[in-house]
Specification:
The chain is of the alpha/beta class and 354 residues long. It has a domain at 6-190 and 228-254 and 293-317: 3-Layer(aba) Sandwich (Rossmann fold). It has helices at 16-28, 68-78, 92-97, 99-121, 159-178, 200-209, 229-242, 259-274, 303-309, 317-330, 332-340, 346-352, and strands spanning 6-11, 32-38, 58-62, 82-85, 129-135, 182-187, 189-191, 214-217, 223-228, 248-251, 256-258, 285-288. The strands form 3 sheets. A 7-stranded parallel β-sheet has the order 3-2-1-4-5-6-10, with helices on both faces. The longest helix is centred in the first third of the chain and has 23 residues, at 99-121. It is globular and about 60 Å long. Bound molecules: nicotinamide-adenine-dinucleotide and thymidine-5'-diphosphate.
């Protein structure tokens, strides 16, 4: 390919949000070479990218962001102009069981990438950019009122959010100390297609479909602010290209839902789609022991992103949720491969024999 203008490294591109970012960039920017780097942990699934894997401007590299020699080798090979860093351990419940894995990937992995990018660019930062994708969970937990702004002090309360907060601090430290051209965003909860069914929305959809109990933590009163994943990918595109260096941008949908209300809404949508009687799926709701240290409420103020860069969410929640349910019902094979573990073999069959 000789029409390539930029070469971008996307880490974690086989995951939920990363696969949407890769798809958007590969299709929208045929003159960018997109290198998707992913360790293919349990959360990485190359079946998420079947529709772009044959494109000329897409390459997959199986690698671990904590592996310094390999990261250096890949920077030398591809001479990246930019990095969009999404690779992470992302599930709060898993972080409670194994905090060190979150420190390894989210903190050490991020610092390793920052080091390698800094060494490779070696002070020649013209046209270069390191974009770190983070979460609103670094801000801690809100009471009944108020929003997280970019000025809200960090107050992480789970091992996951503590590891993400730490990585955010390192990113800003590399900006101030070494002038690394960074930009960062903190987004609220995402939902949409290709979401691993350990997280609330895909787990509930899958359990409703299979008539299994719907485990609602505590009283279901915790509030999350939901954003359609393709809107997040669009925000990443806008911030990567137009965000100001050294700045952070909050991304969110102004769309708060109590967990229990959200589960009821999903049950109603699924009753209609599956031809069940109204109220049938809701009978599966089962209140279970609460998550330890369960943050009560997240709510993002995304005014800065809207005012400065003109981004706003494209979908109303009910519409997005319906699209999401439709996708899961149309793609039973995708979810069956995850529950059976078959998705793990996709890499060997598609890539190992080439
Ligand atoms: P995910 O768990 O679906 O995907 C993470 C990806 O990273 C997987 O493909 C996994 O294989 C890969 N990975 C993990 N460890 C790796 C390592 N050591 N080296 C290379 N690759 C590795 O996560 P997601 O929900 O897509 O989240 C992506 C990013 O966005 C994360 O940084 C997360 O903190 C952030 N974020 C997520 C949400 C959300 O609602 N899911 C909201 C805001 C921010
Ligand atoms: P989750 O999707 O794990 O995202 P996060 O914890 O990062 O916000 O959970 C969203 C909300 O749903 C959170 O308040 C925990 C709750 N929850 C349940 O009630 N039951 C479940 O089975 C899961 C996975 C989450």
């Amino acid at each position: 390919m000789n029409n390539i203008k930029k070469t971008l490294l996307v880490t974690g591109g086989a995951g939920f949000i990363g696969s949407h970012v890769v798809r958007l960039f590969v299709n929208k920017y045929p003159d960018y070479l997109i290198v998707n780097l992913d360790a293919l942990t349990y959360a990485g699934n190359l079946e998420n990218l079947k529709d772009v894997e044959a494109k000329e401007n897409y390459i997959f590299e199986k690698a671990d962001i904590t592996d310094e020699p390999r990261m250096q080798e890949l920077f030398d090979q591809y001479k990246f102009d930019g990095v969009i860093h999404l690779a992470a351990e992302s599930h709060v419940d898993r972080s409670i069981l194994d905090p060190l894995q979150f420190v390894r990937t989210n903190v050490l992995g991020t610092v390793n990438l920052l080091n390698v990018a800094r060494k490779f660019w070696n002070g020649n930062f013209e046209g270069k950019r390191f974009y770190h994708v983070s979460t609103d969970e670094v801000y801690g937990s809100l009471g009944e009122e108020g929003f997280f702004t970019e000025e809200t002090a960090y107050d992480p309360r789970s091992p996951y959010s503590a590891s993400k907060a730490s990585s955010d601090h390192f990113v800003m430290a590399y900006f101030h100390t070494y002038h690394l051209p960074v930009v960062m965003s903190n987004c609220s909860n995402n939902y949409g297609s290709h979401h691993f069914p350990e997280k609330l929305i895909p787990l509930m959809i899958n359990n409703i479909r299979n008539n299994k109990p719907l485990p609602v933590y505590g009283k279901g009163e915790n509030v999350r602010d939901w954003l359609y994943v393709e809107d997040h990918a669009r925000a990443i595109d806008v911030i990567f290209h137009n965000g100001r260096e050294g700045e952070k941008y909050n991304v969110g949908g102004f769309n708060e839902w109590k967990n229990i209300d959200l589960v009821h809404l999903l049950c109603r949508i699924m009753d209609t789609k599956l031809g069940r009687e109204e109220g049938e799926s809701a009978k599966l709701i089962s209140y279970v022991t609460d998550r330890p240290g369960h943050d009560l409420r997240y709510a993002i103020d995304a005014t800065k992103l809207n005012k400065e860069l003109g981004w706003s969410p494209s979908l109303q929640f009910e519409e997005g949720l319906e699209k999401t349910v439709d996708w899961y019902l149309r793609n039973e094979e995708w979810i069956n491969h995850i529950t059976s573990g078959n998705y793990k073999h996709y890499y060997e069959t598609q890539y190992d024999q080439r």
